[in-house]
Design a protein that fits this description.
The chain is mostly beta strands and 110 residues long. 0% of the residues lie in helices and 61% in strands.
Length: 110
């Protein structure tokens, strides 16, 4: 059984004057190994001081809108971009069918 795990890359970049956080998501099994065959859709909800800027999976054949709030994993991975809108707490919720929900919380300082 695979679960959704996410690692948040807190190295911040700046795009158009706004801070951007990068969240790398891996679909892993119960032993923590990436399930490279997993192409499950992952829904992303962002609350607080950030907003969803886009989701990328590295699959050039995937025509899902970049700004959509969901995307299928590709080779068991996704990259989520969060744009800061103010200082404060950001909560990211990742949901995928038949997998554990993952919640990430962090603080943005301007």
């Amino acid at each position: 059984i695979a679960t959704t795990q996410a690692a948040c890359n807190m190295a911040t970049t700046v795009y158009n004057g706004k801070k951007m956080q990068i969240v790398e998501v891996s679909m892993v099994d119960d032993f923590g190994s990436v399930v490279e065959t997993d192409s499950s859709p992952v829904s992303v909800t962002v609350d607080g001081a950030g907003e969803l800027a886009g989701i990328e999976n590295g699959d050039i054949a995937d025509v899902t809108e970049y700004s959509s709030n969901w995307r299928r994993a590709h080779n068991g991975r996704l990259t989520i971009y969060i744009r800061s809108v103010q200082s404060g707490k950001v909560t990211i919720r990742l949901d995928s069918i038949n997998k554990k929900t993952k919640v990430i919380t962090y603080v943005i300082t301007q």
